[in-house]
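I am writing to request your help with a piece of structural work I have in hand. Thank you for your consideration; the sequence and its tokens are set out here:
=====
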Amino acid sequence: MSRNPVIPPSPSAEAYKVDEDQGEVFTREDPFALFIEWLDLAKKKEPNDANAMALATVDADGLPNVRMVLLKDIDERGLTFFTNLESAKGRELAAAPKAALCFHWKSIRRSVRFRGAVSSVAGEEADAYFATRARASQIGAWASDQSRPMDGRFALEKAVARETARFGLGKVPRPDCWSGFRLSPAEIEFWVNRPFRLHDRLQFHRKDAGWTTRRLYP
């Protein structure tokens, strides 16, 4: 088999021997508390966007789709993110309201995956978050026909200029096509790197009002 020089080689035995063993990291019985603990650590280590997560959906043909979005809130109800409802992810979630999320923090060599049902956030919640965004981002939400074909970058710049002029110095309201989704996890899996690819995996399954756990082979 040919080897692409762009792809890093598998680590040598010597490299594995100096691979950091992080000790016990599954320190909480509640998965949300454990995730927040890991996220707090990642925020101190990641160069940027520790709250970035891969969002996987399916289209009308059942073909998977994945992209990066930003986590904006987490509580006992689930994980919240915001988007244009007419974007590809917005349309796909409206048609098939289930999704998966994956956080991968290379700096601490850990990842967390979530799977579950997705629901729309209340309008008041979307309004409250939209009001915290930078003004240019608010205007961008009006100007961008997200996921749809664009006739060159200049078309977007013209739309931004048009919306900037329209709102002037006044308040920029939330567009009807812009809101949020919340994923309520039925399953959460925590992964931590271990030497020689003998990683640790801990999986939580929601059961009634609580959680059950099981360890998985790497």
Helices lie at 13-17, 31-45, 88-95, 123-132, 135-143, 153-167.
